[in-house]
Each structure stands twice: as structure tokens, then as C-alpha cells.
Amino acid sequence: MNKHLFLSVLLLFIIFTSGYQHALAVEQAEPSQVTGAPGAEQGVICLPGIYTGEQGDCTPLGPSAYLTRMGSMGITFPLAPLSAGKPDPALTIVDYRYGEVRTANAPVYPSVEDALKGNKKAATRRIDSPFSYISYTDEAVIDGKRFYMVEYGEWMTANDISRIGSVPLFQGQTFSRTPETAFGWVLGFLSPGPVETKRTPGYQEQDYTGHVLNHHEIVKVYSETQVGEESWYMVGPDEWVNDKVIARVIPNTTPPEGADGDRWIEINLYEQTLAVYDGRELVFATLIASGLEPFWTRPGLFQIYEKLETTPMRGSFEADRSDAYYLEDVPWTMYFDQARALHGAYWRANLGFPQSHGCVNLTVGDSRWLFDWAEVGDWVYVWDPSGKTPVDPSVYTAGGA
Q: Is residue 264 classed exposed, middle or buried when 0-12, 13-18 and 19+ CB atoms within 10 A define those classes?
């Protein structure tokens, strides 16, 4: 027997068996207790399957009721995988090497000889932002000490720089057609332990299934329910997880109000996801990191007005410059709202929660995919379905990285 056919038959058998007790009770009930279909007075139970509307001569109870309930949520057996693909891994390659500046007021020397001597009086400038990353084009090892050329003729010491071995390699998903159900990525780093599904939503029952979801695993989201003040997502047949550990995309092929044409980028601030629509079909989706309070990414409808393959970014908003940042060679940058842009964030180890000064951060690979797809003038729709992000323009500055 074919492996997949065997698994399908086995799954249906398990479902049928699980509903057998209920079905038997219905069969033994008085005719007046069995209602809902013309054949109910005879206590005839439908064969296992998905039933909608009038059944005629049987009652869809037991296994059929379960299958019908699952079918109403888009779940059929065997479970169908999400029709998606991975972007080209080559998009993650960038022609720069990066490092984090780990020393306050780190000096930049005019020559490798001055850097070797540690002659700080000879420094041409200093990098004084608390959050700073440089790019370097060359390196040298002299007397066992390492140095990095950050600009032509300018050097910094390895005592001040911590190299980034490789940029984060996470990539989103491409689509040839719009999925019929919502989906999302598991954010394992936000959970205090393994992300294990539950048979029922909420924490009242300790009915964990033993099924553990891995970090960045992609799952379908079939249903949502509220338990107290928390939302729970159904990610499989009777499998639930808290919404906080899923970054969800809800496909919506209707253009945002005010946008003409069939191309737009949707940024969901609550879910921390980005979706790209072309020809009114979802073609790409991924994780982001948006602005952290009080540097929110501003909700609204915007248009990309400038594209830059690389650009430096620096700035601060606090009077004491405690939030100052200095970033060299930020890749694949697309400005859409003053200084707020979509861009690659080679310094972000994890996405899926607000972290920026207002920009929409993506991995290098995802920002390259988006840069190649996007055109100046494309619409960018930013919204927060929770309504918690301010919409009053007066609370926003020009924004930043």
C-alpha cells in the first residue's frame, strides 16, 4: 500500500474510533433525541466525511461531526502543506563585512601604524554612539594584533570591534498563489520553554500534546479564540498555542483604501510581519522588527520615494544621546515615510518584535528580495490591528533606523 494512502487511512481510523463512543450513544438514543436531518428519526449516522447543508438520509455525528467541524476551519485530512517556497539563498550574500563597536568613544586612526601604537591623539574621529556598527573592507594582523580598515586609510583595532561572523540567514516565503488560510512563524525565543501545543486554548488545563514547534517553523493558523485577555491560535487539529509565540500573516488581496494599482506592501505592526501583493495575489511574506515605543513606525499609507543599495544611518532623539545609533552600509534601503525605511538589519539576531527607531527592519536576504521587487512609487500600508500604535502625527519625529 502507498505510504501516504496508508497514513490517510490510519488517520481516518483514529478519528473514527475517537468518535465511536459518541456515535454509539446517538445510535442508542430515543428517536426524539436525535435531530438535525431528515433521516434522524431512524438514528442513521453518516459515514465519516465532511457534510454541509441538508444530508437527506443520515445524521453527521461522531467522526463526521468532527471532520465537518475541522473542514469548516480549512482542515482536511491528510493535512495539506502550505503552498510556499524559499527565496534564493544567494540573496543573503552581501559584499560587506561588519563589526559591532564595543568600546565607548572608539578611536578611528589615520593609519594602521597609528592603530598599532594606540596613539589616540592621532585619531581622526571617534565613534561615540552607544549602538554602533561598522563595515570594513580589509584587515591586518601585526604582532598578533588584529586591525580593521573601516574606510580607505582609516583603521580601528580589534580591541574596539567585535566581528559579525555572518549576517542572520532567515528568509521569508514566496507564493505562487494566495494561501486560503492564515499562517505564521513560531517565535521560539519569546517562550520561556519549548513551544508545545495544547489540546485546548488557555492555561486552565495542563493538556499539552507533546508536539513541540521549533523556532521559525512555519504553521497554518486555522482559528483564533479569546481566553481571558489572551488570544490563542489553532495551528492543527485540536492544537493551540498562545498568539504571542506566532507572528501571523492574514492574506488579504484587497488593496488598502487610497492605494491604486495592484501592487502594495502591507506591514502589520501587531503581528510583526510583512506581506507583498502583486496582481492582487500574495507573492512574499516575512518577519520584521518595527519601531519600539516611543519610536513607533507610523501607521498610514505611504509610497516608496527612494531606493539605495547601501547607505549610512545615524541619529538620536534623546537629549543625552543615550539612544544614539551609528550604522555603516545599511543594505537594500527603501525610504517611504520621511527617515523611516524598509532595510536590511545585519545587526538583528531575531525579528518578530519591535526593536527599531521607526524603520522596518528585515534580514539582509529578505530586504534584497524586496529591493529587487519594489519600485519607487509602490504603496506601503502600515497598520496595527490592535489599535495600540498612536496615529496622531504630532507624536512622531522624522524616524530612524
A: buried
State the Cα–Cα distance between residues 27 and 6, nearest whole angstrom. 29
Rounded Cα–Cα distance for residues 286 and 87 (Å)? 11
- Helix axis angle, 20-28 relative to 63-72, nearest 10°? 120
Retrieve residue 116's grid coordinates.
Answer: 598599532
Q: Per residue in 388-397, pLDDT tens?
A: 999 999 999 8
Segment 320-332 mean pLDDT? 93
Q: Please say if the pLDDT value at position 14 is more than 50.
A: no
Which residue bears the cell 532567515? 170
Q: 273 CB contacts (<8 Å, ≥6 apart)?
A: 184, 185, 247, 248, 249, 267, 285, 286, 287, 288
CB atoms within 10 A of CB 2: 8
Those residues with Cβ within 8 angstroms of residue 20's Cβ, 6 or more apart along the chain or in another chain: 62, 63
370 vs 380: CA distance, rounded Å: 12
Q: How far apart are CA 245 and CA 287, in angstroms?
A: 13
CA distance 236 to 13: 18
Rg of the Cα trace of the chain? 27
Pairing of the two strands 131-136 and 325-337 = parallel
pLDDT at 312 over 90: yes
Please give the residue that has the higher pLDDT: either 306 or 78: 306
Q: Measure the N-to-C terminal CA separation of the chain; round to a whole number of Å.
A: 57
Kindly compute the dihedral angle of the four CA atoms of residues 57, 60, 64, 69, in this order, to the nearest 10 degrees.
140
Q: Average pLDDT for residues 361-370, to the nearest whole number? A: 98
| Distance in angstroms (rounded) separating the CA atoms of residues 249 and 261 | 22
pLDDT at residue 35 is higher than 70: no
CB 129 within 8 A of CB 328: no
Q: Do residues 336 and 370 lie in contact, with contact meaning Cβ atoms separated by under 8 Å?
A: no
Cα 171 from Cα 370, distance rounded (Å): 11
Provide, rounded to the nearest whole percent, the portion of the chain with pLDDT above 90.
70
Query: Which range (53-67, 157-171, 175-189) has the least confidence?
Result: 53-67
pTM across the whole model: 0.82
